[in-house]
Amino acid sequence: MTDSVVEIDRLSFGYDAARPVLRAVSLVMPRGKVVGIMGQSGCGKTTLLRIIGGARQAGSGTARVLGTLVNGLHGSALYALRRKMGMLFQFGALFTDMSVYDNVAFPMREHSDLPEELIRDLVLMKLEAVGLRGASRLTPAELSGGMARRVALARAIALDPQLMLYDEPFTALDPISFAVIARLIRRLNDSLGATSVIVSHDVKECMEIVDYLYFMSDGRVVAEGTPQDMRATAEPFVRQFVRGETDGPIPFHYPAPGYGADLAVARG
Amino acid sequence: MAEGGRLRLFERLGAAVTARIWRLGFASRFFGYMLLHSGTALRRFQLTIREIYFAGVLSLIIILVSGLFVGMVLGLQGYETLQRYGSSEALGVLVALSLVRELGPVVAGLLFASRAGSAITAEIGLMKATEQIAAMEMMAVDPIARVVAPRFWAGVVSMPLLAALFSAMGIFGGYLVGVKLIGVDEGAFWSQMQASVDVREDILNGVIKSVVFGIAVTWIAVFEGYDAQPTAEGVSSATTRTVVTSSLAILALDFVLTALMFTGGNAR
């Protein structure tokens, strides 16, 4: 744990003061590891990812990414940091007015003066890494969901990032695409020597590929450890989450007044 | 009770007014930021050329056909009125001045707002809704410099050209109806037009109007797109707002510009 890429210390955040999304979250992500942040929808994990990417400013506490403090970072300093990061969005977020090839070439063309022949070789190498070199002339509209996610992954690694951020990378994928993306995340992380953060609620599959896990609930980290620790844990939230039980510390019902009282009012 | 109701009414009115003023301020800051970050659009001019194709070239059909019909109607109506005073040879002047000073810039501007303005808003709004804008920011590329500014400058360049083509087609339409159909003397039609239309007073002022409309329409279109709620409903209402606001802006600006340009001094 000596060399950490992301260090978050007692970080709090809220879109408005009455509704805090993150409450004093602290976590550390060591270099070279794949770290999972799991939790239900709305527990603040995507917000946390945004803060790491500098898209949101923490209310209090600090977030240090690749040695740079991201609190209050903006303009060219933020862009300089982001050039060392890659992010895979939930549905890929490919540029729909460009071909697959141009999508992957986009960051290279924007950030370098490389000659077009060299860019071509690099793009084909990135596409080969995700198995889609043959699809380079297609447009995003012609791709399946899984293929679009793989192209977006190729685009995210275009500049060989040191830190990869994945926002729900497995949402709405068939089992085969799911396995392909999961294996790619692991393999790319190891071959790039990067560090990866995966925000997801697909627990079982995530636990196969991550080195370390943080469980979040209601804006707090409630449990952390290696996948083995988490499978063995007695922590009730983690057990409920990992096994997908409908009731437990996370209730099935949204808070409501008494059922009887509600129905009686409805009848009266 | 009535007191409270009246107070609430004032409160709502006040809130609506301040919200609009905020928005205007926000739009102005956006405009300033966009101008400051227009370097990319001008340096890499092929980005702007591409947008000129979408905003300008693809609007040609509607502009040319509408121009032709407007000119033909002017020919018919103008002849009806002029022949009562025995001056039907002045038809060329009437058609040309109406088009070059007013109808060209205004009608072409209205058509441009509904054809190209709405398309710009919808495109930028959808890019936002599908996280393409966020993805660009995460790739350390400023979306205002890369996406917004080229579209803005393309609109500013396209609008005067479209207005000029509209006027040219209109004059041709007036010629078809007046000379070919009704039989106004061809020599008189053209020579009176040549003698009475002034390059500076009429044509230049018309061009200035169309440039101003081009700035207004494209500014509104890019702002509404960038500011749209990232949902299907948000994009659709932003598109509607673009057409409504820019149409009203064109008509209001036209009055102001006409009052400044054509009062006193040039009674012809």
Features:
heterodimer; A: 268 residues; alpha/beta; Rossmann fold; 10 strands; globular; B: 268 residues; mainly alpha; 10 helices
Description:
- The complex is a heterodimer of chains A (268) and B (268).
- In chain A, α3 (100-111) packs across α4 (116-129) and α3 (100-111) packs parallel to α5.
- Chain A is α/β, with parallel strands linked by helices and 268 residues long.
- Chain A has helices at residues 45-52, 75-82, 100-111, 116-129, 145-156, 175-192, 203-209, 227-232, 236-243, 259-267, and strands spanning 4-16, 19-30, 34-39, 60-65, 68-69, 85-88, 163-167, 195-200, 212-217, 220-225.
- In chain A, strands 6-7-8-3-9-10 form a 6-stranded mixed sheet, sandwiched between helices. In chain A, strands 2-1-4-5 form a 4-stranded antiparallel sheet, with helices on one face.
- Chain A has one domain (32-50, 72-250): Rossmann fold, CATH 3.40.50.
- Helix content of chain A is 38%, strand content 25%.
- Chain B has one domain (37-261).
- Chain B has 10 helices and no strands.
- At the A-B interface, α2 and α3 of A face α6 of B.
Question: What's the helix and strand layout?
Answer:
The complex is a heterodimer of chains A (268) and B (268).
Chain A (H helix, E strand, L loop, with lengths): L3 E13 L2 E12 L3 E6 L5 H8 L7 E6 L2 E2 L5 H8 L2 E4 L11 H12 L4 H14 L15 H12 L6 E5 L7 H18 L2 E6 L2 H7 L2 E6 L2 E6 L1 H6 L3 H8 L15 H9 L1
Parallel strand pairs in A: 3-8, 3-9, 6-7, 7-8
Antiparallel strand pairs in A: 1-2, 1-4, 4-5, 9-10
Helix pairs in contact in A: 3-4, 3-5, 4-5
Chain B lengths: L1 H35 L2 H5 L1 H11 L4 H25 L6 H39 L2 H7 L4 H40 L3 H11 L2 H29 L4 H30 L7
Helix pairs in contact in B: 3-7, 4-5, 4-7, 5-7, 5-8, 5-9, 5-10, 7-9, 9-10
